[in-house]
From TrEMBL:
Protein name: UDP-glucose 6-dehydrogenase
Organism: Pseudovirgaria hyperparasitica
A GO CC term attached to the entry: nucleus
Positions spanned in the full protein: 60 to 578 of 629
Keyword Ribosomal protein: no
Active-site residues (renumbered): C297 (nucleophile)
Amino acid sequence: FDPVTKICFVGAGYVGGPTAAVLAFSNPQIQVTVVDRDSSRISRWQSKHLPIHEPGLDDIVRVARDGTNATILARGSAKESVAFPERTPNLFFSTDCEQPIGEADIIFLSVNTPTKLVGVGAGAATNISIFESAMRSIAVVAKPGAIIVEKSTVPCRTAQVIRDILDIHRPGVPFEILSNPEFLAEGTAISDLLHPSRVLIGSSNTSSGLTAAARLALVYNAWVPEASILNVHLWSSELAKLVANAMLAQRISSINTVSAICEKTGADVSDIASAIGMDHRIGAKFLHAGLGFGGSCFKKDILSLSYLAESLDLPEVAAYWKSVVDINVWQCERLVKRVIKSLNGSLTGKKLAILGYAFKKDTSDTRESQSISVIEHLLRERPAEIAIYDPGCTPADICTELQALFGAAGSGIIAPEGPINVHADPYTACTGSSAVLILTDWDQFRYPPLSQADSSAAAVESYVHTALARLAQVQVLPEDWDLNAQQTLFRSQPQCNIECTKCNKAPGALKSYPGENLK
Ligand code: NAD
C-alpha cells in the first residue's frame, strides 16, 4: 500500500481529540491534524489547559503535540512506567478546515450526532445534519483516493449518505468509505484507546474497500495487535456500535430494576450483582445499581436503535429498547421521591448539597447527566438552597450551563437571586445541608484527604459508617454536625443514596458499595 503520511480528524471533541492524540502518539511518522470550526475549543487544544479532562491525556498530548518527553504507564500496569524521549511534534490542532482535509490520506469524521429535536423522529432519531454538513465540506476539498472514515456513531447505512454526497460533489472521483466506530468510555478514554478490546473496521466487500480497510488496520497496528482488529461489512459495523451501547445500558437498567425489588424485600442488590456476575456467561461489569446512566451516548444510541426498529416496522423490538431508557428516567425520579419523603415531604426552607454534577467520575462532561435531572426535580419542590460541587467542573462552567438549560428563567435560579449555589469546595457546599446527595462516584467522595481526618482509624471507621447510614437513608443531619471537622464523610457511598444495606448488615464493612462505577 501507499504509506499513510497525513491524517485529518474533523471534530475536536471528546472522541476526535483523544483518538487523534493516541493515533499520533503511536505513529510518529504520520502527521495528524484535528480541525474544528469551534475556535475556542481549538485554542484550548493548543494550550496547556486542554478542553477535556481525561486521565493520561495531558502526557500523550505533551509527547505528540509538543514533542516533550513524558513518562507514561506501561500496558496493564498501575506502577511500571515507560519514558518517552523528546521527538518531532506530529499532532496539530487547527480551525483551518480546508488544507488539512485536502492533504489527508485518511479523514476521520468525528463530529457530534445528537438526537433529532424537531420534525419526523424528534426525540428518537439521530440528527445527522451536522455530520452531513461536515461531509459536504470534506467532499469539496478531499484529495482523490482519500479514505473517509465514519468515527462518529451514526445510524445503520449512513455510509450510503456519504456516498451520495460524494457522487453529487465529486462525481467519478474515487473515494473509499469506512466505518470505524469508537468504543472508548469517558473517564478512561486514554486507557481504552491505548488498549482497546477491539478495533472495528467496516468496509464494502469490493477489493478497493478491503484495501482501504487494510490501510486503516495498518495505522492501528502500530499499537493494536492484529488479532484485536475486526473487519466486517459497513452496515454491521455501524449497527454494532449502537447495539454495544444499548446492551451496556440495558444491563444498568436491568440491575436498577432489581435494586427496586431489593429495597422492598431486604435483599442486597450488591450481593445479587456479585452472585450473578461470577457466572462467566453474565460477567461482573455494568452490574452496579445506582442512579442510572448518563452521558452523551447511551440514551441517544438506544433511542436511535429503537427508532431504527420502528422504521423497519418492528414495533415490539422498538418498545423493548425504549424501555431501557424509561427505566433510567424512573430510577432518577425514585431517588428524588426518596429524598423528599426522607425530609418529611417538603424541601421548603431546606438546603440540599449535590456532590457530583458531571455524568460520571474522572470527566468534566455533563451531557445528559442524571445530576441535572435530579436538580430539575428538586427545584420544583422549592428548596431554600441547592449547593452543587463537582471536582471536574468549574463553578463558572456549571453556572453558565444551568443558565442556558433553564432558558429565560436561568439567571434567576443562580444565587444570589435564586436557590442554586455552585461551590468550588465540597465542604462549604455541604455545610448546613439537610441532606447530601452523592450522585457521582468520584474517588474523592470516597477517599478524603487523610490529613484532614482527625481521629484514630477505628473512630474514623465508625464515624464513616454512621455517616454512610445517614447518607444512604438521606436523613436530616444533626444540628451539631460539623462538616469541617468531620471530612471523612466524603468517604462514602459513591453513587446515589438509594440503599445502603451494607451498612445495615455489616457495620464497619466499607470495602464495596452499591453503585460503584455505575455509568
Ligand atoms: P463533541 O460534541 O464533543 O465534539 C464534536 C465536535 O465536532 C465539536 O467540537 C464541533 O464543534 C465539531 N464540529 C461539528 N461540525 C463540524 C464541522 N462541520 N467542521 C469541523 N468541526 C465540526 O462530540 P463527541 O462526544 O466527541 O462525539 C462525537 C461522535 O462520537 C458522536 O457521534 C458520538 O456519538 C460518538 N462517540 C462519543 C463517545 C463519547 O464518549 N463522547 C464515545 C464513542 C462515540
